[in-house]
Amino acid sequence: MDEIIIVEYDPRWSQQFEEEATTIWQVLGNDLVTRIEHFGSTAVPGLAAKPIIDLLVEVRSLKEAKKSHTLLEALGYAYWQEDPRPGQMFLVKGMPPYGLQRTHHLHLVEADSDLWERLLFRDYLRSHPEEAQHYAALKRQLAERFKTNREAYTNAKTDYIQAVMAKARRHNHKNQ
Fold it and tell me: What's the pTM value of the predicted model, to 2 decimals?
């Protein structure tokens, strides 16, 4: 069972990201990787979250990255080859047979991916702690309601995330 558990912010998450990003970069190399960002709730100081580090990895070629999945599997990642979302390569660390609980989500994308816009959400929550606390309360509610249904939990956050993204876009536009 893959239960959804929300925990208080852990300041070690940023260090765990740095360590994993360094490892990913070393394994895949500069010829493939151009940048790695920490995103998702663990990237927002003070925000309660599922204790899973999300890494957004920009690669020069997704086609080439897919050829490297065995290198990431050697680090304990499970590659979801049937991922229905085009334009990304998604891997999970910590799932059986590599562990009992997810620890990292790895999203490999090219520079033109829509996933990069998620950094706006992260940055908005970082600069608006009251919004981050509102989001934490919502996540706790939904985790209780959808304890073992990740898809329903994620889908139930959609309207809220879209509303915050609209604010983030306006905020970003004003500050440019």
Answer: 0.91
